[in-house]
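2024-03-11 09:14:02 INFO worker-7 job=invfold-0412 stage=load source=structure_tokens
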């Protein structure tokens, strides 16, 4: 049944791909970064660890990394882990490229994909990923647009297929309706179990959490972030 739903689903990308025009230095940094790190979805790999320039012990995925604050922090904290960052928004990818340009190099444990994450998920081998982060995704707050939210039964099937048993799907948002939506969808999915040891767990940021500019804005505007972790059973 899960396989049939995946085959039936043809997702459209909702949202902007371009924002402000890039400055020449940003554009040059982005071009150099993509030449180095962009994944081309040719023949699917038997093991995504082979996608990296140097050996890695496991591979994690971050979908919609925005300006890249969290992704860069994790790449630095876990050099033996390979990270695939997905961001279709050109300006977000450019921010990450500029930050790396300022640091003077591209990490060997980072690859990126600049298109629809569902295509990448379908390309990856079964039980090959050790963690998925979906942090502050577009909430589509109007009820008529909720069907556009990335968390849905079809994409949870995709997550369940690529995640190794015992690995984690982490979701953060400051929008109450999306937090509730995600809890309900994950609790209804037999492959996921919410990891919460106390009533306040959802208020506690993840270990090593660097914060993001979007999160800081949400807090200034009086919205409370929620940090959910689901185990792939």
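2024-03-11 09:14:09 INFO worker-7 stage=emit residues=233
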């Amino acid at each position: 049944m899960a396989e049939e739903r995946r085959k039936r689903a043809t997702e459209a990308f909702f949202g902007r791909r371009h924002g402000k025009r890039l400055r020449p230095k940003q554009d040059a940094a982005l071009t150099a970064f993509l030449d180095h790190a962009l994944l081309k979805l040719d023949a699917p790999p038997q093991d995504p660890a082979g996608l990296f320039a140097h050996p890695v012990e496991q591979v994690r995925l971050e979908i919609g990394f925005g300006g890249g604050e969290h992704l860069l922090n994790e790449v630095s904290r876990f050099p033996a882990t390979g990270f695939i960052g997905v961001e279709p928004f050109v300006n977000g990818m450019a921010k990450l490229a500029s930050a790396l340009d300022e640091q003077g190099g591209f990490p060997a444990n980072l690859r990126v994909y600049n298109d629809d994450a569902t295509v990448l998920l379908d390309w990856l081998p079964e039980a090959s990923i050790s963690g998925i982060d979906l942090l502050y995704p577009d909430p589509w707050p109007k009820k008529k647009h909720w069907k556009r939210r990335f968390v849905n039964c079809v994409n949870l099937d995709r997550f369940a297929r690529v995640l190794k048993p015992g690995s984690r799907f982490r979701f953060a948002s400051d929008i109450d309706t999306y937090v509730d939506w995600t809890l309900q969808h994950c609790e209804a999915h037999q492959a996921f179990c919410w990891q919460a040891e106390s009533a306040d767990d959802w208020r506690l940021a993840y270990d090593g959490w660097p914060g993001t500019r979007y999160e800081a804005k949400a807090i200034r505007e009086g919205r409370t972030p929620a940090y959910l972790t689901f185990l792939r059973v």
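2024-03-11 09:14:09 INFO worker-7 stage=report msg="The chain has one domain: 2-10+25-232."
2024-03-11 09:14:10 INFO worker-7 job finished
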